[in-house]
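Hi P.,

Sorry for the delay on this. The queue was packed all week, but I finally got your sequence through. Input first:
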Amino acid sequence: MPRSTLALPMPGDPRLRRVCDALLAEPADRRPQEAWAALATMSTRSFVRHFQADTGMDFSRWRQRARLRWAQERLAAGVPVSNVAVDAGYDSLSAFAAAFRRHVGQPPSAYARAVT
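Then the structure:
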């Protein structure tokens, strides 16, 4: 299976790691940032500040990258693009395709053809 082209730094703080592990297990989880902060037992403001400091990126960007890395794995496994888009938590195939192209550099269908 090809390696992902998207870097995804993992936090060292165990509270933040708990959040990241939950998202990696269920990338379509749509909880708002406040709920993730609660899972980390932090205020939203502290969560935002600590997440940025520990990973070098804001939470929204990290979550999107996590979803796209997961999508790359699924596409490489032969799962249809439309299924991957829904399972990754995107509202539409076009939103998924646009995000995938922006971050990976090619449409998900082209990526899937290249890696399978």
